[in-house]
Amino acid sequence: MRQHPTIKPRRPDFKLREVPRYWQSGDPVATHLSNALFMLFPAGERFFIRSVRRYESRYRDDPARMKELRGFYGQEGAHAAVHDEAIRILEEQGYQVRDHLDRFEKVCFEFLEKRLPDVLALSATAATEHFTALMARNAFDNPVFTEEAHPEMRKFMLWHAAEEIEHKAVAYDVLQDVNPSWLVRAAGMLIAASALVYFWRQGIRTLLRQDGISAREARERIQALRQRSNHDFMRDVLLKGILEYLRPDFHPWQVDDLHKAESFLASLETSPAPASA
Ligand SMILES: [Fe+2]
Ligand SMILES: [Fe+2]
Hints:
Layout: E1 10-12, H1 28-38, H2 41-53, H3 63-92, H4 98-115, H5 118-141, H6 144-148, H7 151-166, H8 170-178, H9 182-210, H10 215-229, H11 233-245, H12 258-266, E2 270-272
Antiparallel strand pairs: 1-2
This protein binds fe (ii) ion (2 copies).
The site of one fe (ii) ion has 5 residues, from α5.
């Protein structure tokens, strides 16, 4: 069951400056649902890299695991860099997102990283990686959103999704080596789920407010989007993710969806990504 795919960072060329402001079906609400999540990636992914890197010395004599870790750093670093560019474009379009992102970075780097034990930061990373893996699987299984996205954003989302699947067990395997306690795993999930839901919602509000869309209008449009796409984040990612992850025998490769990632990645024309952030 446990797989160790080759984790290869790739850096496709994205023409994000050609992407229209409302790149998801021309709809501000659908677009900002994704933008608000994507804005969290640069700080989030750098936090993931740092929380795993703290335990790297355990693997100095294990070249296969070291290669896996470097692949993970390289992929997350490349994702963070492209999402950084997407944030710059949002700011150039006039959106004020810096205060919101500063608050998120403070929670990651001032609170979680400095105030909590290292193992909880690692555990929060492993849990968040489970959410990103579920979202990635959904991007391939339920392609309504990606099919209606601008082609450059579709390529960007599927590249990120595919690499999330490829490296989905890296942080979890390190956590199991460092501390396999179920309580530590559950505490990481509590931190990850709370931070993700809170900051994602705040991001959606921050962006929609600046487009003059009220919270009520947004709720109605989100409900309609859920019905049309047959996808509900709270039910299909959050709740499902938490329940799966808390099973005592959970492992990310119990669901083998690597073939979905591989067939997409094989179709990408890429150049190698830099080694890490
Ligand atoms: Fe990523
Ligand atoms: Fe990841």
